[in-house]
């Protein structure tokens, strides 16, 4: 029970192992177990964001990448995120690519019909209006907020910032463990 408590209050694994008197490997296993619960709950929730009168901001971002060409060459890992500015809830999912064939089904699954969706002008989002959403875009090359529609992606960008800050310490994690860390942070 102590291990779960320390995980919950975000005590580092090494410190937890020391405090509880277990090996670092045992603490890692318990933390992974807690993250697995978050992953399972995230998949089970399936609660849609948005709805009539709600704005859902969507965006994609690159995670776990090299910065300034420093470090070993890593695969590109795209994460797609949705943030309901009314309920202040967000979800993020690891995606293989940013194509319409990948993103549109995710949007249909996680964003309620009748929602207003704000996005950048990424081509994969072009068909959203035909699917029952009000879709407004912002051109980031000229504005952060569209001067006519007031569309912006500031809240989902802030969501990314918080998420990346939280995940920064796990840059050494390998393989699928990264995605359980992502689920934990989104949960």
UniProtKB/TrEMBL annotation:
<feature type="domain" description="ISXO2-like transposase">
    <location>
        <begin position="48"/>
        <end position="183"/>
    </location>
</feature>
<dbReference type="InterPro" id="IPR024445">
    <property type="entry name" value="Tnp_ISXO2-like"/>
</dbReference>
<dbReference type="Pfam" id="PF12762">
    <property type="entry name" value="DDE_Tnp_IS1595"/>
</dbReference>
<protein>
    <recommendedName>
        <fullName>ISXO2-like transposase domain-containing protein</fullName>
    </recommendedName>
</protein>
<dbReference type="InterPro" id="IPR053164">
    <property type="entry name" value="IS1016-like_transposase"/>
</dbReference>
